[in-house]
Amino acid sequence: MRKNQKGFLIVLCLCILSISGMFGVYRYRNGQDSRTEQKTPKQTAQVKEETQEPKKEVANSEGTVAQADTEDKKEEEKDQAKIETEEDIYKIGETELARTQEAVPEETPVQPPADGGEEQTEEEEDTQETSADQVQTDLLSFSKDSTLIWPVEGDVILNYSMDKSIYFSTLNQYKYHPAIVISAPVGSEVQCSATGKVSEITVDEETGTTLRMELGDGYEAIYGQLKEVAVEEGDTVEEGELLGYVSEPTKYYTLEGSNLYFQLLKDKEPVNPMEYIE
Prior knowledge:
Blueprint: H1 2-103, H2 118-139, E1 156-158, E2 161-168, E3 173-177, E4 180-183, E5 189-191, E6 196-204, E7 208-216, E8 219-227, E9 236-237, E10 242-246, E11 259-266, E12 269-271
Antiparallel strand pairs: 1-4, 2-3, 4-11, 5-10, 6-7, 6-9, 7-8, 8-10, 8-11, 11-12
């Protein structure tokens, strides 16, 4: 009897253990399945997020490209508007230039400055002045039939003499004389004998302060023994105007006394002034 009870208890224990083992296995499997289900959604969500991120990047890239395209279009529109504005300005400039050219006479075109700048301008000014002086000189007229007025009041103490020599008291010698010497007190007024242009004023050892004047047609008048000259080189002086005053005589005319030295030239050669003085 006792043996049967022990066998029954052993079987019962084994059954209980078997049931417990089966229950444990069942719970273990259920736990593994739940863990698998939990892991799978997370991984799926992560995969979805990773799948969506490239899409966002693509979208961002496309947006940047679209924005760049928009900016390029705006720049092109600005450039086009700028070009159109410059073309409009150019057209307006051409219209104004045409009007200006119509207003300016063709005889006076505006020349661009040549290389050399100010030096070229100075040369042109000098050329213009020389041309003006030449024109002014060409307007002067004096001929064999023209007359001279007395440059100073006084007596002729030394005559013109180129065919024979005459005596000079101060030099104590005879020599040819290409001019006339008119005695006059110091300070006497010296008048212009004929209209002419002052070409040179110099100081000479023999004739003192000397003024040379162009009369035209190759004629020149020379006035010596002057002081306080009232004109300048380049001046055009009319007949009868004041040229200066009689000065103290030079050492060549100390015995002759104060005087005016007066000479007339034709093509650089001396002629007798007395043939022209009235």
